[in-house]
Specification:
The chain has four helices and no strands. It is mainly α and about 45 residues long. The termini are far apart.
Length: about 45
């Protein structure tokens, strides 16, 4: 998202301005923090 905004995409710049990237970063953190639980469920 940041790269596309930096490359001139007005849509992605708008997404950043609106804070959409924070939602994605939060989702990624959630998955990272719960990785052991998620993997255990996948392999059981």
């Amino acid at each position: 998202m940041r790269a596309r905004a930096a490359a001139g995409s007005e849509a992605f710049a708008g997404h950043l301005a609106d804070g959409h990237h924070l939602l994605y970063l939060g989702d990624a953190a959630y998955v990272r923090e719960r990785r052991p639980i998620l993997e255990a469920d996948l392999w059981s």
